[in-house]
Amino acid sequence: MKENGSLRGDDNCVYNDFKMAYNWMIEQMKIRLKIKRPNDSVYPVWAWYQWCGVDKRKPDLRYSGYGEKGTKLYRIEFEIEDDQVLLSDFDLFHFVLNYWYIPKNEKEHNVFEEKMDKNSITLLDLQDFNKNSEEINSLRYKIEKSWDLIFDLDWYDEYITSPKHEKSIQAVFWELQWNQVNDIKEFIAR
After folding, report:
1. By C-alpha distance, which of 15, 174, 11 is closest to 97?
2. Which of 29, 38, 59, 154 is the most exposed place for a label (fewest CB within 10 A)?
3. Crossing angle for the helix pair 106-118 and 134-146, nearest 10 degrees?
């Protein structure tokens, strides 16, 4: 980044199992951000806006899971214009990663499950895009529409998500410029 003047996401660094969810996020960025995707090979850069609630905005480097143990990594603190970044609920993004339905409440969850049961459709059926039927496609449509909830950071239902001040909020953007960097902290992954 220091040599090139910027940092961009690279599709070669995305696990194949995550490509569908990342491509969905790319489409959301195209819709929701004013800044255009630099080119078709650029994938989002992911960052934390709020790592673990408002009291822990920066990732705690004493935790494990940031990289392979013993790897030298960097925590980069930066500022980016609001209209260049898309914020979303990190925990709810796991519904996108797993191709799950995000219900607005427990009742809505139960209705969705009942429709699956009534039509003998499993989660594996919904995740297998070689399988198609009117019922499966209808449920897939509901699943993908439900994902819009990850962007409603004020939305709270105790059955589904946390209040905003407790959420882990991720940020995605197309590019980080060197001149946007405020601080860099080197650390070794645990």
Report:
1. 15
2. 154
3. 160
Alpha carbons 188 and 164: distance in angstroms, whole number:
30
Instruction: Using alpha carbons, select from 91, 73, 80, 95 the residue that is nearest to residue 173.
Output: 80
- The pLDDT tens digits of the residues spanning 14-36 come to 889 999 999 999 999 999 999 99
Closest among 75, 74, 21 to 48, alpha carbons compared: 75
Rounded to two decimals, the pTM is 0.93
Q: How far apart are CA 82 and CA 33, in angstroms?
A: 9
CB-based contact 148:27 (threshold 8 Å): no
Q: One-letter amino acid identity for 189?
A: A
Q: Which amino acid is at 162?
A: S
Which 3 state secondary structure label does DSSP give 73?
A: strand
Q: Helix (H, G, I), strand (E, B), or coil: what is residue 187?
A: strand
Whole-angstrom distance, CA of residue 187 vs CA of residue 153 = 30
Residues with Cβ within 8 Å of 12's Cβ and at least 6 positions away in sequence, in order, are none
CA dist list (Å): 80 to 8, 41, 167, 181: 14, 22, 20, 9
At 46-74, the pLDDT tens digits run 999 999 999 999 998 988 989 899 999 99
- Give the dihedral sign, CA 56/94/25/165: negative
